[in-house]
Amino acid sequence: MNSTTTYASDIAFTSSVKAQQARKGSRKAYARMEENGSWATTITPDLAEFIAAQTSIFLATANADGQPYIQHRGGPAGFLRVLDDETIAFVDYSGNRQYITMGNLADNPKASLFLIDYANRRRIKIWGTARVVEADAELTARLMPENYKARPEQVLLFTVGAWDSNCPQHIPQRFEAADVAAALAERDDRIAKLEAELRQLNESRA
Known about the structure:
Elements: H1 15-24, H2 27-35, H3 45-52, E1 56-62, E2 68-74, E3 81-84, E4 87-93, H4 100-107, E5 110-117, E6 122-133, H5 137-143, E7 152-166, H6 177-205
Antiparallel strand pairs: 1-2, 1-5, 3-4, 4-7, 5-6, 6-7
């Protein structure tokens, strides 16, 4: 939070946003939220756990003219790493080589992360700044997921300014294919064991 803001949520609730909240009738509720502590500004243990479980994230940036851009990034759970109570990092893999996010951050370091857990219908919005780190082999090796088939190109460091958790309303419940496969395998194993027990019971009665 910088010196021109009163509450952490001011990173998103500009005067224009607050004017719309007042017009739509939600300003009083958000004013109470601000007075009662507003949004968190550091990474809590619960947030760190949520971050570590992510396999798919969205990163928003904007260029010098304000044109927004959202980029998807994914990987195995743990690809998104917490370095300290205000820093999130991940390896940026080689892709289509458009470098829109990289160019945007060169002009405007402000960024947002959007994390969503479909299975538990939870989403987290994180505001802050981001920067690209190139040619740091040690950092890249430390952050690169083990045995993940991707070519690392650079590292992105995200400094948290504020974050908020949304309600689950309208989030469709979806599950990872691997989790579904594991659940079905467990079910099938249980069915096989029950069938075997039933056969043994029938044979003992014959």
